[in-house]
Amino acid sequence: MKRLPLVLSSLFCLLSLQGMAGIFSPRTLKITTTPAVATTALEPPQATPEQVEQQLKDAQAQFDHALTLFNPWYTGPLITPSASMMPPGYGNLQPYLFVKDTYAQFDENRHSVSAPNAVTVNPLAILQFGITDSMDTILTVGGIENWKQEHNGGGFSDITASLGFLIVEQSFYVPKAKFSIQQLFPTGQYKNLNSNGLGLSASGAGAWQTTFSLAFGKLLFWNTTHPMNVRLFFGYTISTPINVKNFNTYGGGFGTDGTVHPGSTFACDLGLEYSINQPWVFALDLVYTATGSTSFTGSPGLLNPADPTLPATVGDSYNDNLSLAPAIEYNWNENLGVLGGVQFSVYGRNSGNFVSGIFSVDWTFPVH
After folding, report:
1. Is residue 83 a part of any domain in this protein?
2. Distance between first and last Cα of the chain
3. For residue 235, what is the domain's CATH number?
4. Per-residue pLDDT at 8
5. Are residues 260 and 139 in the same domain?
6. Which of 133, 207, 336, 365 has the greatest count of CB atoms below 10 A from its CB?
């Protein structure tokens, strides 16, 4: 992720000029003994020694405050994508490790219903490279391993690649903004899964998915020594239809043969990073996703080939989920940091009720 450099020299210059404007002693006040000449124009009032002393104190206080400010270093937050552009000639590597336990399910009425624990371990790596000052690219690769009811399965996940385009740079009043197009390539396993019906060997969606997104970012400086970085992300994902057979990512059973039409997904994330000091940062994500119903056409197959009264189901109804992800960051410098935290669901419909531990390292490096 691109760093957020802050040059304080301009601030010091302004404060210095302001201070210099008031830095003069009573001895520099020239008192004239020339007889006053009658005039209708009002002469500007002369500063008293007490006013001069107060100006000196105010200028010194502003300068002392400026000295306590620092160039903030940020690694996270955990989930919300950044609006920062990676400059040409530089790259960024950010490996992640997710360990997720889905211990219940939110039903149609948003009630949490207990379910057998499903544990997922998901390592992945995000590579970002600058192409031009206004365009960069991101590649994500990873894998997944699932455990449930003393069974396990997994494999290589889907690959995603994206292009990001700068809309506007950050200014004093305007946040930076970035538009991205991401393409998912269905490299993971999604059909002809293990016939135990648990779906543990599923590692991909099977569809070509395209995501259009807008990301915003703003660095805020309060009248304290604790700046805050704010991120806001909106994404919309559309999918191609998928031909599935037998047990698959979307359900199914013995003899399932047909086409799945995945619902589109809307995502909205808010990320906050609060600087405790330069190396230590508290981060928080608010993550919301909503996916339309997934439909199926074809033969659904059977859950048990010996019992034709138990047809399999394929697809899903509308689902959404709201989760929080607090984290702590530690940065050795502006190019290297680590962060760790948890993500947990607080609200949902037809989705998993989960808690996930997340750890990541962020490293920016030159490539020329």
Report:
1. no
2. 18
3. 2.40.160.40
4. 39
5. yes
6. 207
Q: Domain check: are 231 and 165 in the same one?
A: yes
Identify the DSSP state of 264.
P
Do residues 39 and 179 both lie within one domain? no
Same domain, 181 and 289: yes
Q: Is residue 14 part of a domain?
A: yes
Left, alpha or beta for 149 (phi > 0: left; psi -120 to 50: alpha)? left
Q: Side chain identity at 184, as an amino acid letter?
A: L
φ, ψ at 24 (rounded to 5°) = -155, 150
Distance (Å, whole) CA 140 – CA 256: 31
pLDDT at 314: 93
The neighbouring-strand residues paired with 27 are none
Q: Which positions of the chain have pLDDT values less than 70?
A: 1-44, 63-69, 223
Inside any domain, residue 84: no
CB-CB contact of 215 with 81 (8 Å): yes
Instruction: Record the pTM.
Output: 0.80
- 174 and 38 in a single domain? The answer is no
Instruction: Give 30-62 as a DSSP string.
Output: PPP-SPPPP-SSPPPPPPPHHHHHHHHHHHHHH
Are residues 48 and 124 located together in one domain of the fold?
A: no
pLDDT of residue 38: 43
Q: Exposure pattern of 166-193 as b/e (b: 16+ CB <10 Å)?
A: beeebeeeebbbbebebebebebbbbeb
Residue type, 363: W
Structural domain range at position 103: 90-366
* Nearest partner of 323 among 342, 347, 340, judged by Cα: 347
Residue 78 domain-assigned (yes or no): no
Of 155, 241, 143, nearest in space to 193 by CA: 155
Tens-digit pLDDT profile for residues 21-46: 333 333 333 333 444 444 444 566 78
The number of CA neighbours under 13 Å toward the Cβ of 315 is 22
The total of structural domains in the chain comes to 2
Count of CB atoms within 10 A of residue 272's CB? 19
